[in-house]
Amino acid sequence: MKSPSMAKTVGMVKAYAAQNKDAPLAPMEIRRRELGPSDVSIAIRYCGICHSDLHKARDEWGVTQYPIVPGHEIVGQIEATGSAVGKFKTGDWVGIGCLIDSCLTCQSCKNGQEQHCEKGATYTYNSPDIHLGGMTYGGYSEKIIVDEAFVLRIPKELDPAAAAPLLCAGITIYSPMVRWNVKKGEKVGVAGIGGLGHVAVKIAKALGSHVTAITTSESKAQAARILGADDSLISNDADAMAKNVQTLDVIIDSIPASHDVDALLQLLKRDGVLVLVGLPAEPLQVFAKTLARKSRILTGSQIGGITQTQEMLDFCAAHGIVADVEIIPIQKINEAYARMKKGDVHYRFVIDMASLKESNKKSTAR
Amino acid sequence: MKSPSMAKTVGMVKAYAAQNKDAPLAPMEIRRRELGPSDVSIAIRYCGICHSDLHKARDEWGVTQYPIVPGHEIVGQIEATGSAVGKFKTGDWVGIGCLIDSCLTCQSCKNGQEQHCEKGATYTYNSPDIHLGGMTYGGYSEKIIVDEAFVLRIPKELDPAAAAPLLCAGITIYSPMVRWNVKKGEKVGVAGIGGLGHVAVKIAKALGSHVTAITTSESKAQAARILGADDSLISNDADAMAKNVQTLDVIIDSIPASHDVDALLQLLKRDGVLVLVGLPAEPLQVFAKTLARKSRILTGSQIGGITQTQEMLDFCAAHGIVADVEIIPIQKINEAYARMKKGDVHYRFVIDMASLKESNKKSTAR
């Protein structure tokens, strides 16, 4: 299986970066590290646009270090392997999600929860770069060099472009569904039908559960039914909400903005679980009695470990699940951000990275 | 074991009631139902004063029906048994907690979770009375008639007066500790050291865990250490709180008023659980990221089922656990409420019901 190293250094590569919170994303050359023994070099073919890319590029969470090259839904092909690489060979279709490094020795890493690494995981972008210093640069770029331990195999059954969003959105949904035992016979609510929510409907259906889409308009409810939802509930219809109190076992709440989570909690049966995956920045208001009266559980979840991410990809391959995507050239990234901000995407933008070569030709020609 | 019925009717009994939300509690005669085949008549010896008694008597939750006779931490002796009663005989020391009836046939009842009865459990006071109509009257009274299925055996090792608060406070603490697997090697936080919290410290220690009392003053922290806490943390000491981020497995949060639950959640390790048992009326503010980053769980719990309540009493007997109580005559009930409201009790008032006879003599003599 081991293939010879094809390149010792990769050096400078083309990318798209934001230089400050107000600047549009624009071409920039970034440096990639030398290929280490356990590293692979990946030619990036597609990169999904996650809502966090926008939050981070615009410094909406107040922690961004500039310049930033976003992108953590990366699909590409191996173009070089380090001398000790065993799992991959040149030409393989592979994926990189939100994580590119962790200690691999702490209890969390040993439990396959590298995202909770006790020494701090390295995220794919805007995270301290332990190799080159500065911050890591993400997938809006030509190439990336990553330790093979953090590289996922993209099953051949999956369309590579439409599989890209699974690397973040897919695992963010799959991990809590496994944790909270979503299965046949369970009633699952999916609140918010966007990038995360549309994948949640598909995965919950594939796990055999009965899915109720919880959304704010009849048109979104209809769209959710097209995705496979069995039922729908309009969250600002007080009568409908009251009728559905205590009907659901699990709710995946993907709403990214402030909302009435207490009203959603009331939809849960005894011992029911609401998992926050949308992560609004504002605090949520919850009544103790809503939780106590029926021993309801409010929790949250972020991505998942590497082994489980591979399990999710294999599960999606077995069930024919990919994201619904709109493919764009990198030159339309700022327009895509603007549309995403308005919720104008069904359901995920994916950048075709072949466009980056074209872009940079123009950029250097200017 | 079966003993003959000693009385067919009990009729009118002495009690203390509030007639409206502003009136002090005062003597009143109430009716008890006839003894049914599976009923026992209990001569009440002691009744604990729970914070909910005060909330309900003063209609702080907006649902009280007057007159109200509070009291759901009842310890007494069997004085008569119905023809079909098998578990108890005259003279037995028994307890009644918050529940006196449920359907016993729904899935929740079959699972031993009568408090979650799908047809609605009957609570010991201010709950629709299925036998006599009107509302049920609680333990601030001479006698009570209850189906033996809802009667607990008070182990002989326990002081009856000090055992009374276990019927509500004890099970409210024990049930979530069992549910969330508190055991040797676990680090447990107890937030709020009052009626519930002081029992939580004792039960968590008896389960073998390392206990940190989380409270607002050094004097309360010292008091908690006297109760058995291994450690303490002053919740408004920001440095101490920051130092203790991610150190606890489970927090039992017994604080009855609005507080910063997000700060407490941050003390939890990955997959840690905070259980709300204090039930403040105001909504609590929680940040989604606090939950998501470490898959933390926020939940709540209220009392427990009958089988588990007996298990708790037997556990307390085996470990010598009772509440720390201050015994009062019923004539001091209004003073006790006033002191409880100021937090001036270590840690639970218990009414000596022998005083009720004296009281009513005076009352009728007036």
Can you describe this structure?
- The structure is a homodimer.
- Chain A has about 375 residues and is an alpha/beta fold.
- Chain A folds into two domains: about 10-170 and about 325-360, Alpha-Beta Complex (Quinone Oxidoreductase, Chain A, domain 1); about 170-300, Rossmann fold, CATH 3.40.50.720.
- Chain A is built from twelve helices and 18 strands.
- In chain A, strands 3, 4, 5, 8, 9, 17 and 18 form a seven-stranded mixed beta sheet that branches. In chain A, strands 12-11-10-13-14-16 form a six-stranded parallel beta sheet.
- In chain A, helix 4 packs across helix 5 (about 195-205) and helix 4 crosses helix 10 (about 305-320).
- The longest helix of chain A has 14 residues, at about 305-320.
- Chains A and B meet through strand 15, helix 9 and strand 16 of A and strand 15, helix 9 and strand 16 of B.
- Strand 15 of chain A pairs antiparallel with strand 15 (about 285) of chain B, so a sheet runs across the interface.
The CATH architecture category of the largest domain in chain A equals Alpha-Beta Complex
Quaternary structure: homodimer
- The CATH H-level superfamily of the largest domain in chain A is Medium-chain alcohol dehydrogenases, catalytic domain
Which residues of chain A sit in consecutive blocks of at least 5 with pLDDT less than 50? 1-9, 362-366
Note the overall shape of chain A: globular
Q: How many individual β-strands of chain A?
A: 18
Largest sheet of chain A: 7 strands, mixed
What structural category do the secondary elements of chain A indicate?
alpha/beta
Count of discrete alpha- or pi-helical segments spanning 4 or more residues of chain A = 12
